[in-house]
């Protein structure tokens, strides 16, 4: 086959349709041809030469799916596979079920499969506020900032981060936010600026209290209560122990995990093609998942704004995890957050976020979270309640919380 004919074939592979023509040409120059007879292992015991693209023939993934989705694991022309997320206890074997010809992109060149990613602006830019009047600030949603996945509403963490930032601007700099209660009242419109109005509830010697209303079109869509405390010496202990987990630098990022899942043959073919075709923008926070075994300013409150912003990226998905099934769409929305900041937190260092969901009932679920610094110190505790509804149709959205 010529390079041009190989590139023409590769253009029909769903995984590669997100790449520019120049990348397809480069891949076409590097792929190697592999021939397999019926019954021969293509991938066995986790041994793989790279990413495989089926040119001719048929292969089968050795899994035990339900009969109604067994066809998802029969791979034919234009399908692709490789070693995905490494789990030694459940490695996938791929066997030729007929005479099979594959084009193989060697592992050392697999970086060519990465599409050019859009990037988020720095978190401090996302959380920037413009002063309008005393105690009134304006925030906007940048085009590339995270949005609520369900219907492109304003991301809940943005409300929290903006509100804490606004409240912090009205408090003596020696006092730092240590506790918040946040209430999501209505969905926020991405195209309309949000006015944050800060109400002074109390200014004491050691503590200060603020109430922040987020307003769009004259209507309060979000409210936050915040308490600030001046550092002082006192009793100190910690009963909870940080779980033992791998070092963060050794873990895959969310984006790397996503790419591994796309090529992992243990996932149904239709799911992998759908994820490969979906537009994906990396998050402004580096998140890495593990199993147990960005400086923003010179003062201390902004890092807490960043942490508060980041927590909403993951919490809701934990409640939905036990209920996920094929074809089920769940709409999730935050109802309220409560956070306690126990110690100073650095927004430009790794934080271990331990999350669990003890209960979900009557369409509401609760999530408990703890954040530890790299010294094992508990820096943040939090509780979130969310609304979780099964979508009756793909177009169903939730406009109001109550």
Explain this structure.
18% of the residues lie in helices and 31% in strands. A hairpin with a 3-residue loop joins strand 12 (194-203) and strand 13 (207-216). With 402 residues, the protein is an alpha+beta fold. The radius of gyration is 25 Å and the shape is elongated. It has helices spanning 3-10, 21-30, 123-126, 156-168, 254-263, 269-277, 301-311, 315-320, and strands spanning 32-36, 41-43, 50-56, 59-61, 74-75, 80-81, 94-96, 100-106, 130-133, 136-139, 175-184, 194-203, 207-216, 219-230, 330-341, 352-361, 364-372, 378-390. Mean pLDDT is 82; it is low at 292-300 and 394-398. The protein has a 10-stranded antiparallel β-sheet. The protein has a 4-stranded antiparallel β-sheet with strand order 1-8-3-6, with no helix packed on it. A 4-stranded antiparallel β-sheet has the order 2-7-4-5, with no helix packed on it. The protein contains 8 helices and 18 strands.
Compact description:
Helix content is 18%, strand content 31%. By secondary structure, the protein is an alpha+beta fold. GO terms for molecular function: fatty acyl-CoA hydrolase activity.
N- to C-terminal distance? 62 Å
Placed side by side, the strands forming the largest sheet appear as 9-10-12-13-14-11-15-18-17-16
Residues in helix, %: 10-25%
Radius of gyration: 25 Å
List SSEs in N-to-C order: HHEEEEEEEEHEEHEEEEHHHHEEEE
Question: Strand portion, in percent?
Answer: 25-35%
Protein name: Cyclic nucleotide-binding domain-containing protein
GO molecular function, one term: fatty acyl-CoA hydrolase activity
Domain Cyclic nucleotide-binding: 15-82
Organism: Saponaria officinalis (Common soapwort)
